[in-house]
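Following the same procedure, sequence and fold were stored together, as reproduced here:

>
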Amino acid sequence: MSPVRTGTGPSDNSLIVIVLAVTYSSLRRADEGIAQFEKYLDQYKTATPGQRAVYLACLALLRAASAQSASAWDLPETLNGIRLLKVEVGEAIRLTEQLPDFDPSMQKLFPRWVAGLLLTNLPVPFADHTAAEGYLTWCVKILTANSQVYLAAGQFLHEAYFSLAVIYRDCGNKEKAEAYLKLTGFGWDRPPIQIATPFAVTPRGLRDSAKHITEHVPGQVFSAGGFEISDMHFIVSDDGSELIGVDAASSVVNCKEAYDYFVAHFQARFPGRTVPLLTKVMITHFHWDHAGGLDFYRGLNPDLKVWASAHFEEEAPRARHQPPPYQWFMGEEFVLEAVRHFHPDNTVAAETTVTAGGTEIRLIALPKGGGETPDGMFVYLPGNGVLFTGDIMVPWVGSPYVAEGDPDALLETLKFTGTIQPEPKIIVHGHGAIGTFYPTLPAMLRMQAPLGWLKDEVVRRIRANENRAQIAGQPLVPPVLLEPAQSDLRFPYMIMREPFLSRVYVKHVGYWGAGLENVV
């Protein structure tokens, strides 16, 4: 990540800057991170006040991490670092006073969040609970103002709530302290780490956001997200007589919860209209979290018809016998038997058109399955340009706990997707979080160049007898990513880089290993 940041100048994408700072801290290399961020601030003379504020806030976090790990012998240097971080976070707040309260880069929110956390947790006499309360209360107000902001940055609420609980506990306000602690979902004995993520684990499994409905086409195409790791999609036919589903969650209970939430949303948005009967479901690929809840849909309509790729049986041995090895991933009510008896009513070996209530639906079997599984299938609504892509852009390139995933198929599928006519206008991923990285078709298609470069570079290094660890340890930054026009792809590339190169490596190296490292 550091070579990408160093070679491209100040970034409007605060997320990649924050993740870089967190990575330095997590690897216990805070001092190295401090030097790097000081260098950025010195070099980036063209940085806007908001960009500079994010770098300053990250630098303050790194100084706090360094102070935590310092020994008693380093006390003078530690105290100086604490003084500096207070100055830096104060300057970050000053620089962003005139910015909007919220924007996707979080340039005003992030420094105030950092200030609230640090001023709560710094040792006496550096802590300032009065100022911290003000910053954190402001953060909570902004983050809970509306659903759009909450979905974009709700991950910052956990720590804001917990720090407010600490402030009120320490001043003796037990009632407020317990109320904020309850909002965190933690106890006072939680691990000493900071938690800022939209992902959460509940008895129902892993969830990637708050519960919500997205209307891709008002009144017609919907996604239900936040009910588990995958999204469920619903299409109301053109004439309003049929409901079509795309994918079906990991379990009956999650599927039911998402469907009921969608129905409530629809009826509130369109009084007087009723949700039509679910008549058809299209499964983009045979994975546990996309087919495990199908029995709920069959319960709604015994005559329901299900479509899937004709190659689903190639994936079946994994799906039926090797589910995720962690119960928390799928939830306590996940039933593997529901996956084992999955069998579609109709299969698709080539492009097939299905009509439902006047809506044309094109089912497109992907080249070699698309990259994640052998049975990937697009669901395309040419009438309004909505393309359901399933999981082809999930960064792991296949489930990370089984032997699947094909980087060549992914590259071929990206090339193929660019030929679809009429050109898709709206991309809907199987997991809502992926839409953060690839919100549009052009963004998705532009990943073909950096991933193609990475594949060629990994193969070249394999032929030079480098092993996987040696290859992964290199920066491996495609030159195209250093172009300003490609800045939005830098973070997605960093997320995808190691899984992709690992899949390429496994595909090209025998069991001996590049340097006989696997021979015992």
Remarks:
- The longest helix spans residues 49-69.
- The mean pLDDT is 92.
